[in-house]
Each structure stands twice: as structure tokens, then as C-alpha cells.
Amino acid sequence: MARTTFRFVDLRLIAIGLVFVLAWAGIGYRLFQVQGADAAKLEQLGFDQRVRHETIEAKRGTIYDRDGLELAVTVYGKALIADPSLVEAPEEAAALLAPIVDADYVEMIQRLEGDGRFTYVARRLESDTVEQATAAIESAELVGFSFIDEPLRIYPAGSLAAPVIGLTRLDDGSGIEGIEAVMETELGGRPGKRVVERDQAGRAIPQAEFLLEPSVAGSDVVLTLDREIQYTAETSLQRGIERSNATGGSVIVMDVASGEILAMVSLPGFDASDRSTLDPATLRNRAITDVYEPGSTLKIVTVAAALEEGVVRPDTPFETPPEIEIGDETYTDHGNNAAVMTVSDIVAKSSNVGTIKIQRQLGNEAHYRYLDAFGLGRPASIDFAGESTGRLDHLSEWNNAAAGPSAAIGYGVGATPLQMAAVYATVANNGEWVEPHVVSEIIGADGERTITEPRRHQVISAETARTLRTMLRRVVEDGTGFRADLAEFLVGGKTGTSNKFIVETGKYSETETIAWFIGIAPIDDPEIVVVVVLDAPNGATDGGRYDMKFGGTSAAPIFAEIAESALHQLGVSPTHDGDD
Questions:
Q1: Check whether domain 52-223 has CATH 3.90.1310.10, yes or no
Q2: Which of 78, 215, 350, 391 could form a disulfide with 58 if both were Cys (CB 3.0 to 4.6 A apart)?
Q3: What pLDDT digit, counting tens, does each position of 443-497 carry?
Q4: Catalytic residues
Q5: DSSP conformation class of 268
């Protein structure tokens, strides 16, 4: 009987058959896993890869000046985004895109290699850059990249009123300085949410899952600033800084009846539209953050209190020797040779000795009460980020003999230019203190308007205020503030010069001063108060006759320029022909 023999070719066929059987079995098992056991899990994974939860940025509200001119507005640009889980070759993509969008190559790689499903690749792209990047992405068939609309904050007026308006953060657009920060809740609105399915190229899939929670646009904010007055104040202050070699300065123009800030200047300033030149040192708004000893400008409070309390009259005489000793302090009068001065003379000639004698009759308790009532020692407004409280030690801390006399002539008390604007506006407004404010109204996305109602309280009588204005007129007419006089309007005000306190040394500078002039215009029918402060002016004018470190020399002419222009801008008719 013959035996069957297996040939090598038969073994090979069996092996091949087994391979096919195993392969089909593997495929079948995999199909069972995919379509059966793991179907739900894989379906969810695919859904997660397609579906994206995206935030819909709310359109930020616009900031306007009092006439409806845009000071800060949001427009829309493009941002290049990526889904790192879909980017196959981060280094190659970065090498291609970084030069086009002007991004850092290494940083872009780090972003594209991240673990999340979303990252910004480049932001605030101009249209030509978007076109170049789009062409490069399509040419290289890159997946995981797309463009989205992105809100951009721009400032049409450039550097005008920049420290007041502030600026926003580049990454999330939230306010970080000025009104942008203070009014963040109102301006920022409420972001929305979007759930959308996208393909690997980032395109929305038609007829796919799409859920939407709309964003709510931010409210618009109308400021009290007058752009023309603001511009005049900035240019006049800049010229004054250059003329006096000062390191900086600030100006406030305030409507006396309403408390509205028509202009607020802080120099050096910045341009929020040009971040490349932004110096952090210029971000602060000197008018509300910097605290100075007001010097002689604070004498008006001492005299106001004494008049209101009936301690003195305008014609009350005081002996005024060249110097006076109080406790361990010696106070002097520079250039005052009169042996006797009335209260009106003391204000006009800015006599330290005379003012101290008035304060001694008034007493510390009453003096402190009026300093507090005029708003010293606390923020003047709620409209400003970082506003200082100034410094007014409580009466219980006036524990040396010279505390009251020093406060009488503007030392030992710290005030911001805004606080001092409110003090003089009180005198101009017949004794009623009105809260300074820069926000006029808020207009909601639904059109609802919220108008600012400033706080008010009476400090001195209208009669006392009128008497003080007469004295302040004399300061300009024949006193230390003659450079503030105007040809067409009767104005009044007060000069002030205080030695600059150097924080690093804890001592007063022997050479540097803070120079003030605060004026009311017109003095016979007040409309505005103008505060001018110069930081460390120096040099001389008129052939070296007058030292720039004094407020009457350096700050008063700046007041004159600003006040005259502002009154014309406001349509105030001239009240003076300049002949008397």
C-alpha cells in the first residue's frame, strides 16, 4: 500500500492559509472591538476631537469724551490659533509660520507641543499677514490651524488723556490702568459660550453640533473730559515743563458747579496705541496718585476756617515780624517787610507768619475740622484707579506745638492735585464741596443710561466763600500770582511753593521744590478751577530776576494759558477789558 507524502509546497500553502486565517481573525476581533465592545468609547473620542468649547468674547464698550468723540474703541482683527493635538510636526510648522506672523520660533514650538486643545499662535494680525499665513498653511497642508476674530482695543486720540483713560491687557483685553480698569465690569460685558464641531483644518462642519450662548456687549462710558481743553492743557503744561526744566507735572481743569473734570493731565505720559515705547514709569496718573505738601495753597483753608468761625475779618490786623518761633520751629517770611498786615494782606502776600498767627487764634480743633470737611485725608473721587488718600494726621496726633502752625502753611499735610482742585472749587462754588468726577454717564448695551450724581456737602457759607474770592483776586492783582492775570477775564488764585520731600533720604531737598498755582476763573462769576503743579522746576526767567522754583514764576503762566483757552472753549463771555 502506497503512503501519501507531504511536499514542501503543501506546507507553505498551509502556512499561508494559517496566516490569512489569523489575519482575518485579528481583523474580525478588531472590528468587534471597534463596532461592538469599544464603540461607545471610540464614538466619544471622535466627538471630543471634533467638538470644541469656545469662548465668545464680548465686545468691549467704547469710551467717549463729553462731546461723543471716541477715546477708546474696540475693532476686530484676526488671531491665528491651533489645536496642538492635531499638529503633526510642530517644529516644521513653527519654522514656516513664525517668520510670517513675527513670532518667536522656540515659543511657538512650545505652544504647538502643549497638551491642550487650544492655543494662540499669533494675535492682532493685519490682513496682509493673515493672507500670507493662510497661503502658507494651505500650501504645506498643515492641519490643526485656523483663524478667529479677535477684538482689538485702539485709542484714536493717541496719547491724549492716556493716564486717565488707561489701557487694557494684551492677552485677555481686560483693563489694567485708568478708566479701563475702574470701569472693567461695565466696559467688559459678559462673554458667551459656543460648542461647535470642526474638522482637522479647524473649519466648522455643516449640519454638525452647534450650541450658542450669546455674549453681552459691554456698556459705553461717557467721560466729562473736553478734548479741546485737554489738548490745550497738555500742550501748555509741556511747554511749561520745558521752560522751567521740571521733571514732570500735572494739571486739572474742573467745572466748579458740577464737579466735572474737563481736563486732567499727567506728564510725562504715554501712548497706549504704541506699546513698543511704553515706559511703566509713565503709567501713573500724577494728578491722583502723587501726594505733595501743598505749601501756601493750603493757607486758604486756614483763613476760610477763621472767617467762618468769626475769629477774624478781612481787615483784622496782625503784627507780622520777619520770623516767629513756635515750639522748636522757626517760621520766616521771605520778602515781606510790613510790620502790620490785615488778613487780606496776609493772603495776597502769602505771609507765613501772618497765617500762623491766624491759626493760633483759630485753634487746632477747629482747624482740623475744616481740613477734614474740605476733603483732605481721603480720596476725592471714586472714578480713579490708585487714587491716594493723601495725608491728614488725626487731631489726636497733633502732639507738638508746631503741628497746627505747620499745617496752616501747607506742611505736614499731604494732598493730591485732585484734592486741592476740590478745595478751591468749594470756594468757587459758594462753599459747597462737590465730588470731582470724570465719568459722566454709562450707557448699557440695552440703551439704559446711568448718569453720575456726585456727592455734595456744605463746608463754608456763601458769604465766606465770596470774601475768600475777593482775597484771591488780590493775589493776582497785586500779590505773588500776578503772572496768572488775564486780559479778558478777572481771575484769582493762590501760589504755592514747598520744598520737595525726598523719600530715599527722609529729608527735605535744599534745592528742589514743588511749585503750585491754583486759580478760579472768572473770579467774579466762577466757572472753572485750574490746578497746575510742577515737580522740581529750576532755572530763572526775566534775565535771572525770578527763580523758576517758585509757583508764581513757573506755574502761574501755565494757568493763564489754560484758563483763557478753556473759558473761550466753554463759550464764557469776557468780563474784563484789561484796563483796570
A1: yes
A2: 215
A3: 999 999 999 999 999 999 999 999 999 999 999 998 899 999 999 999 999 999 9
A4: 296
A5: S
